[in-house]
Amino acid sequence: MLNEQLIMEMKERVFEANLALPESGLVKLTWGNVSEINREAGVIVIKPSGVPYCTMKASDMVVTDLAGELLEAGMKPSSDLATHVELYKAFEGVNAVVHTHSKNAVMWAQAGREIPAYGTTHADTFYGMVPCTRQLTAEEVASAYEVETGKVIIETFKKGGIDPIAVPGVLVYGHGPFTWGATPQKAVENSIVLDEIAEMACVTEVVNDAVPPIPQYLLDKHYFRKHGVNAYYGQY
Amino acid sequence: MLNEQLIMEMKERVFEANLALPESGLVKLTWGNVSEINREAGVIVIKPSGVPYCTMKASDMVVTDLAGELLEAGMKPSSDLATHVELYKAFEGVNAVVHTHSKNAVMWAQAGREIPAYGTTHADTFYGMVPCTRQLTAEEVASAYEVETGKVIIETFKKGGIDPIAVPGVLVYGHGPFTWGATPQKAVENSIVLDEIAEMACVTEVVNDAVPPIPQYLLDKHYFRKHGVNAYYGQY
Amino acid sequence: MLNEQLIMEMKERVFEANLALPESGLVKLTWGNVSEINREAGVIVIKPSGVPYCTMKASDMVVTDLAGELLEAGMKPSSDLATHVELYKAFEGVNAVVHTHSKNAVMWAQAGREIPAYGTTHADTFYGMVPCTRQLTAEEVASAYEVETGKVIIETFKKGGIDPIAVPGVLVYGHGPFTWGATPQKAVENSIVLDEIAEMACVTEVVNDAVPPIPQYLLDKHYFRKHGVNAYYGQY
Amino acid sequence: MLNEQLIMEMKERVFEANLALPESGLVKLTWGNVSEINREAGVIVIKPSGVPYCTMKASDMVVTDLAGELLEAGMKPSSDLATHVELYKAFEGVNAVVHTHSKNAVMWAQAGREIPAYGTTHADTFYGMVPCTRQLTAEEVASAYEVETGKVIIETFKKGGIDPIAVPGVLVYGHGPFTWGATPQKAVENSIVLDEIAEMACVTEVVNDAVPPIPQYLLDKHYFRKHGVNAYYGQY
């Protein structure tokens, strides 16, 4: 039996986080989705597929189990659900996932390039370059596209030795960004940052076509000023 | 005798779709127009020419027959009406046409280049590159400019073997975009998508000047995820 | 004796046109000014210098004679008044002048380049390229800077054989745009168009670095579709 | 004993100036901070660290002495406080400091380039190029990062013989902009101008890759039209 109170609160948070996407300019039409997982309760809550933000209600959010199987009658979940499920299975500590087609992140995904850490705005959130996956093969796309999208993200982090907690986002080649975080709000903030640093990085290269990434010691300083046991940014 | 109820509903839809152009940032001043056709009823409804969006009313929409001849006393129709008429004659299944001077689509039209399918944002709406017409000749411009604009669009689709239902938009060389769809709202959405992918494609090339279009299998996957009998995106 | 009613109406129009600059995104802080002339009445009305748009009132508009001498006690006029006066003296049929530092037009002015007519958006308002003045000399800047700014604009149109009615705007080298028109509203619209085509032209060259201007016959068609005795755009 | 009235007024001004950052589009999330100093009273008031703009109150502003030591119980100050303190110690006549990650200024900071004075929009506020600091060394970052950030700014102005009153802003290499002024409002305005001229300069180089800065006589004219004893811009 589902914990009604917990589900209702998750729906509310996921709903609010989904609304934050068009409000922050990251999403046009219905191009985005946010989900949240509660592993103990065994539930994932995600945006319904293709529903306009302006008519969507918190109660429209779709509830599934940890394998992405529907637990309630209601709307169809986002078609990207299977990608979210793969990420939750592989990335411990990640409680929320966001997918958008935000303009600047998509440009880098389409260009098939990782985003170098060109400055402290990047380093404050992403501890190192934001990786870009390899292109999916025809077989992967034909078989279980959304599952394989999740798998190629996980492969990218494993092969690159990247910690998904320290680098909470990725570009899927030819497609667009996924970000994640400890909460839906934090995952959305990471999408905002990713799009911003994508734009900054592009024009940085226009202004100086031979610019190197910032040195490791500055990356360390800014990341650990905000994250980890020695963080001293904010009110905690 | 005209079906008053049907006309009134068409006017309302065309009016709302025209208002959506400045609201979505696609149109400045009076640079845009939307029309809808009802082939059975024998009517086209289109925006009046050069009327500011802020003072325009649904009742100002202009009603013509399928050849673009006025059926009601009232305002002059958009000067691009003849282009709309040509498109309706040639493109079955198209019930609404939109013309704008949206910035990013115009840039590609002025550059005289088709927009390559660089990513899934493109593939979700346009099944392949968005074509750009050849330049109109002096004779075509001098004779019946707006009719010839329609004809060169149709020529572009015929010569290229392009299905206008699968690729619901075009760039007219040196001019700007036209899009279309099953409804005025859908045609406007296609204008929004076209402008967005035009911007994305431009910067994609800045970030990587040797990027190829996405492979056919990814184009197929994304287009048919949203369109056709096997579509599984959305709530239908 | 001044015609109070006429002055009040001019102040109201000039005030509204000045407010339209930040509203349309052309102007930040206090970077812009609009004036209107009535040659028969012998008056010019112009924005006061350096007054924030949010506190400005119609009654703050400054009234001068045709030489730019104050006719009323009150605020100091825009420091660019002398440029407006020169343009009114030289350009018959021009009743309003606008100066802004709108981003895209400034970029071309700073680049010292005229804006080629790359498309019909340009041709609908500007009958040919938008010229850029030569750089002012040290002597011109030192003597009567704002007067000389006006003179170099006039020189640009005379030497280039350009009709200021057909090309209602210019870029001042290293500085920014001036536009004009039959009314303050029309002059502001021309500033909106100028900034839009400046942006379009820039990215057009990024997308295709060998693009030529549109042919003369297309320029003619679009310009004369909207202007002159054979115009057929709009409701007149 | 603190002067309560003076502190309250400083808090109000600093609060308003901080709010102006997201309102003017310079700041996303919590990426910015404004402070004000009163040297006679021996106090600095600055934004608290990491507090969202939407919930922040004037009373949340943090009060410190001239060395940055807290004078009131309450929130933690912005983590950049030590940089502000260094600037106040070195730059007489500067009463307010602003730090942002505004997009266009960051792009130049990341590119490691000073912004050339390409036009009068620049010259109206910055009397010459906006400098970019050298990169901080690993030792400087490791020791007292925020203090060293202040010191490298001061070094940049000293070595370059630049007057911080005439050039009220700087780019910190790989990081972003700091601006300052006689009041919090003026310092924020300088941040707005800096971001605007950063964008203009970037695209100016795209439109003309061989453009020189404006000549000294034009820089002089525009700067001194607005600043100093012979200024004639505005209502004073």
From TrEMBL, chains A, B, C, D:
Pathway the protein contributes to: Carbohydrate degradation; L-arabinose degradation via L-ribulose; D-xylulose 5-phosphate from L-arabinose (bacterial route): step 3/3
Free-text function comment from the UniProt entry: Involved in the degradation of L-arabinose. Catalyzes the interconversion of L-ribulose 5-phosphate (LRu5P) and D-xylulose 5-phosphate (D-Xu5P) via a retroaldol/aldol mechanism (carbon-carbon bond cleavage analogous to a class II aldolase reaction).
Enzymatic class: isomerase
Listed GO CC annotations: cytosol
Translocase among keywords: no
UniProt-listed Enzyme Commission number(s): 5.1.3.4
Reaction catalysis annotation: L-ribulose 5-phosphate = D-xylulose 5-phosphate
Gene3D superfamilies in the cross-refs: Class II aldolase/adducin N-terminal domain
UniProt name for this protein: L-ribulose-5-phosphate 4-epimerase
Organism this protein belongs to: Candidatus Enterococcus mansonii
Cofactor(s) listed: Zn(2+)
Protein family (similarity comment): Belongs to the aldolase class II family. AraD/FucA subfamily.
Gene Ontology biological-process entries: arabinose catabolic process
GO MF, any single term: aldehyde-lyase activity
SMART domains: Aldolase_II
Domain Class II aldolase/adducin N-terminal: 12-202
Keywords from the named record: Arabinose catabolism, Carbohydrate metabolism, Isomerase, Metal-binding, Zinc
